[in-house]
Amino acid sequence: MNRIDAAEERIVTERLRQKLNEVNSAAQAQLGVVQDHVNFTLQKAYFKCAYECFDRRRKQDDISMCVENCSIPVLQAQNLVEGEMAKFQERLNRSLMVCQDKYESSKLQKIKTDAAQDMESCVNRSIDENIKSLPHLVAKLKASLAIDPTNE
What is the C-alpha to C-alpha distance for residues 99 and 80, in angstroms, rounded to an integer? Predict the structure, then answer.
């Protein structure tokens, strides 16, 4: 690889890093309402519920079981969010791998027709498509978690 190709690849790599930062920022911004619901509304309910479990008339096992039952909604919500985000990440990774495979293939075939720019364009499309899917993902999570849209 000559210096020009190496410099071009570094530039493309930096642009790709910026694009990935963009998708992370978009995900955090879009999921803020869901995270707030889990971290505050559900956690608050959990602590209130758990507090009520501590009664001197109860046996230690009963208290433990009560507290464990109180944690179920929070754990279910966290698992749901983590699962959906894992699926989102997997879709993003697969689409980026397609771009990488195309790039590697064009390098192997020694096709010099702007392979790096083609990869950057592919990555940009892929990330933009995934960012566009975030509102649908958030809507699905809100529906599953029964988040009232008027309480945002």
Answer: 29
Closest CA relative to residue 43, chosen from 68, 5, 73: 73
Q: Could you tell me the pTM of the whole model?
A: 0.81
Contact 118, 106 (CB under 8 A): yes
Please give the helix or strand (H or E) that residue 4 lies within, else none. Answer: helix 3-36
Per-residue pLDDT of the chain (152 residues; tens, 9 = 90+): 567 667 777 877 888 888 889 999 999 999 999 999 999 999 999 999 999 999 999 999 999 999 999 999 999 999 999 999 999 999 999 999 999 898 888 877 766 667 777 888 899 999 999 999 999 999 999 999 999 866 55
Domain ranges of the chain: 3-145
Closest by alpha carbon to 16, among 95, 107, 134?
95
Q: Output the six-digit token pair for 41.
A: 């509304």
The CA distance from 114 to 55, in Å, is 71
Rounded Cα distance, 75 and 36, in Å = 15
Coil vs helix vs strand at 24: helix
CA-to-CA dists, residue 50 to 45, 66, 78, 80, 85, angstroms: 8, 7, 18, 22, 28
